[in-house]
Amino acid sequence: MNWFKFIIWCQLFLTALSELSNAFLYLTGRYYTVQGINPAEFYSQYPLFRIVNYLFGGVGVVMCIFAIYTRFQLAGFKKGAPGLFLKYTMISVAKTGIYVLLYVIVSTIYGKMTTMAELMDYISLMIGGTALYFINKSYFAKREFLFDR
Fold first, then answer.
1. Residue (of 135, 13, 6) closest to 67 by Cα position
2. Angle of CA points 85, 89, 92, to nearest 5°
3. Is 79 helix (H, G, I), strand (E, B) or coil?
């Protein structure tokens, strides 16, 4: 049960905090400040990125709430909680994939090339998330009987 304790006491709280932090960076434009770019200038040149960032900032807030909700469902051994956690994991992977797709489309509209390094960062996140999905699916399949409340 150490893996379970890690999930409910560490992973989901840190994931929620990360989602909230990323949402703040996207919604305020500070994502670009961290990279040394003035957000106002960037958005004046590339206004579609503002829409993408607002969209994913909002999604980040929702994912933060979803992570906390999922955590309490798991901690309470609620029926269906493992499935909820697996859904959360795959939605997170899908969110990353959709962001990459929109990023590439918007970059292409503005004639910017997306570098392989940028793509590989996101692809590695998606591969890691998918691997965690299968690990957790196996883990919770053996413990589904515990979640009966």
1. 13
2. 135
3. coil
